[in-house]
Amino acid sequence: MGDAAAAIGRRILVTGLPGSGKSTFSGSLAARTGLPLIYLDLHFWKPGWVAPPEDEWREKQRGLLAGDAWIADGNYHETLDLRLERADTVVVLEMPWWVCSGRALRRGLRKPGELPEGCEQSAWRQLRDGCRMAVVAWRKRRSEPEREHEIISQHGQHVALHVLKSKRAVREFLDGLDER
Questions:
Q1: Tens digit of pLDDT per residue, the chain (180 long)?
Q2: Is 98 helix (H, G, I), strand (E, B) or coil?
Q3: Whole-prediction pTM value?
């Protein structure tokens, strides 16, 4: 049995900087484990790209995470403590900032995938958001991982923590699941 397979639970958080590969990783993880996948971005936004108040967002997540098995993909550090209460595994993707920025820029040039209900995505908005996320990855390259680890150390002492810092580490982790 691989190291990943031995330490993976049934309630998994996947987090990391914009462009770190969270959605791609989460999709692969869901395919290998059969666990349902929750893309937090699809549930966060209200119609017209309106952000909900924090108490409403916390309540919505309580409902999303009520099940016994899931993979939750997304950041939202303001409510990470809530997700950590239910999680048994956390996977942090800590790719180099330039990889994250490049991926975010490329995402801005692609056709958008699934969007939150009531939210439209023009080509201009897609490009603007990709550029904005590339800048966020650079500006928060140190502060976000530090903040995330601090929250995990405060609220997630019970979780199995996996920090993956390269495409190779991601591949090895996922390949380890196939050995189960």
A1: 345 545 689 999 999 999 999 999 999 999 999 999 999 999 999 999 999 999 999 999 999 999 999 999 998 989 999 999 999 999 999 999 999 898 888 887 776 778 898 988 888 888 888 888 888 889 888 888 899 999 999 998 999 999 999 999 999 999 988 765
A2: helix
A3: 0.90
Is the separation of the CB atoms in 175 and 2 below 8 Å? Answer: yes
First to last CA, the chain: 5
Could you tell me the CA-to-CA distances from 28 to 71, 81, 114 in Å, in that order? 11, 25, 17
Task: Evaluate whether 156 touches 77 at the Cβ level (below 8 Å).
Answer: no
Place of tokens 């903040």: 147
DSSP letter string, 31-56: HHH---EEEHHHHHPBTTTBPPPHHH
Q: Where are the domains of the chain?
A: 3-178
Q: Is the dihedral of CA 59, 61, 63, 66 positive or negative?
A: negative
Q: Give the chain's length.
A: 180
Give domain 3-178's CATH superfamily. P-loop containing nucleotide triphosphate hydrolases (3.40.50.300)
Distance from chain centroid for Cα 8: 16
Residue 20's nearest CA partner among 87, 73, 66, 65 is 73
CA separation (Å) from 130 to 19, 66, 118, 126?
A: 9, 32, 20, 6
